[in-house]
Every structure is written in structure tokens, then in C-alpha cells.
Amino acid sequence: MKKWLSLLFAVSCSAAAQNYPSKPVKIIVPAQPGGGLDLVGRTIGDQLSRALDQSFVIENVSGGGGQIASQATARAAPDGYTLMVGYVGTHGTNPAVRKLPYDAVKDFTAIAMVGGTPNILVVHPSVPAKDLKSLVAYAKQNTGKMNYASGGIGTLNHLAMEQFRGDAGFDAVVAHYRGIGPAITDVLAGQAMMMMPGLAAALPHIRSGKMRPIAITGLQRHPLVPDVPTFEESGFKGYDGVQWYGIIGPAKLPAAITTRLNAEINKALNSPALQERLSSEALAPMPMTPEQFGKFIQADIARWSKLAKERNISLDD
After folding, report:
1. Which of 63, 138, 219, 240 would give a disulfide with 68, using CB separation of 3.0 to 4.6 Å?
2. Which residues does residue 26 pair with via DSSP β-bridges, in sequence order?
3. Strands (E), the chain
4. Cis omega (within 30 of 0) on the bond before 21?
């Protein structure tokens, strides 16, 4: 009887997947309209709407650093009609620095990675350093005087900066802001000396000369700033973390639905039009299988959890 019921369930799931989607699909974006998260959600939603001949509707759910959106997704029926833009905040750094009301791995299905953008170390022009070597030397000569800005405790730009500060062996006071915007404002004003924002956020100010780029994360130089060396080129290994974005769903999503969504998203990532749209946020496509994406999430959580533990960074203290 049990075997028969399992077979019946498998057949019904297969049939549901073949007819999927038969009604509008909701994509939850864990942020207000505008910015990288919203862009990814709407871009992928548009692509899936055309490919699958069904509406993919964006629902912006901000608050709690992505916790509210993540909870809503985790609690949704695993039928493919509630998806979410998961990113380094919700499924990378948050699990590393705070207790969450959900398991960032077990309560979700990894569907498809979309893309990532590097972080870039920048300084105010008043800082007399043109590269990492001279910046580290200056920081060590000015112990107690150095400071840097972050978009909040436990954010990627905070953790990446702490990784560098610890590896380079210098002290600096951190000023935490409510988001990357106010942090950038104070660096531009010279109130903070350096920071490590995402490339898209820093690019206009680099081009205007109001911020000086020093080094960029990732395994190779970025085409938008080809003259900026990577950390690895400058003698610092292990700086391949990125601000990444992907599509996830509730746990136990039928494999056939996961596979179909993954195939359509990966197909779209090969489109020059989509690549051009993502480039406005300095996002490079990072197509993966669901299995690869799942392992990527686990590795990212492990990376930042190790760093947070070493540096005693927690939002629960």
C-alpha cells in the first residue's frame, strides 16, 4: 500500500510539473523596489514569463534583513508558485552572524544561480595610497587613526573588510550605517577613509574621481575597471567572495519543476540582452545546476561563519 501511494504521488508530481505553470507564479524580492535585488527579480521574472507563457509576478517584501521574505518563502507550499530571489545576505552572511527563524539550507530548494558582482576596496582621495601594499603600510603607521564605513553589522561589505583588515594586520575603527547609501555618503565627504562596497554602488564615484579604487575581489580583473588589480594579484588569497543573486524556492520542490526552471533561467543567462540588463548592476552571469547552486550556498555560509566566529561578529550579542 505504501509503495503504491509513493508511486501515485510521484506520478501526480510529474503530471503537475508537465503542466507547470498553470497559474501566475510569485517571485518574492527581499527588498523595496529599485536596486540589484529588484532588478534580478524583475529580469528573471520577465524571461520566465515569456519562456513559460505565464505571469511571474514580483512581490517586494522588505524588512529584517531579508528574514520576513525568507520566512514567507520557507512556509509556502512547495508547488513552484512561490519563488524568491535569494542572495548573499539571506543565504550567505545572515546565517553566519545571527540566529534565524529558518534554516537557510534545509528549508529551501536551490533552483538557479543568476549572477554575482565583486566587492571593491576604495579609499577617499585624501588617503595617500595607490595600492594594497601602500595602504597597509599607511594603516600600520597610523594605528588608531584609521576608520572604515560599512552598510551594517554582518553585511558582506563589513565581513569582507574585516577579512582584509585581519589578514593585513592593522587596526581600524568601523562606522556602521543603515545601508550602503549612507556609508558611501560619508566616504565621499571624507568622514570615513575607506570601505568595500559592491562594484555597482562604487562605480559612479570611481569614475568621477571621488573614490580611489585599490583592489577588487574575484579571481580575475573586472572589465568595468580593468586597471584595478584583484586581491590575489596583490598578495592576498581567498578573496573570491561575491555579492551573488539566485532563485530559490521552499524545501521539497518537485525535481521536475526545479529542473525546468533551472534550464529556462540558464538559457536566458546566455542571452546578450539579459546580460546587458544585468550589467547595469555590474552583474556577471553565473549559471549552475541546482546541485551546484546548493553546494555554493553551503560553502558561502561556511566561509562567512568561519570569519564571523574568528572576528567575534554577531548580531545576537
Report:
1. 63
2. 57, 82
3. 25-29, 56-60, 82-87, 108-117, 120-123, 147-150, 173-176, 194-195, 212-216, 243-250, 284-285
4. yes
What tens digit of pLDDT does each residue of 159-183 get?
A: 999 999 999 999 999 999 999 999 9
φ, ψ dihedrals at 259, nearest 5°: -65, -40
- Express each pLDDT in 207-257 by its tens digit: 999 999 999 999 999 999 999 999 999 999 999 989 999 999 999 999 999
Contact 109, 249 (CB under 8 A): yes
As a whole number of angstroms, the distance between CA 184 and CA 149 comes to 8
Helix (H, G, I), strand (E, B) or coil at 228: coil
Close Cβ partners of 46 (under 8 Å, ≥ 6 residues apart) = 56
Contact 195, 149 (CB under 8 A): yes
Calculate the CA 199 to chain-centre distance. 12
80 grid coordinates: 513552484
Beta-bridge partners for 27: 58, 83
Range of the domain at 206: 120-216
Do residue 125 and residue 207 come from a single domain?
yes
Grid cell locating 315: 548580531
* Strands 25-29 and 56-60, sheet pairing: parallel
Is residue 177 within 8 Å of 150, Cβ to Cβ?
yes
Q: Is residue 110 part of a domain?
A: yes
Lookup result for grid cell 580593468: 226
Give CA–CA dist 107/104, Å, rounded.
Answer: 6
Three cell numbers written together for 296: 555554493
Same domain? For 94 and 125 the reply is no
Within-domain flag for 234: no
Average pLDDT, the chain: 94
- Only one residue has cell 547552486, namely 293
Smallest CA-to-CA distance from 156 within 94, 220, 240, 205 is with 94
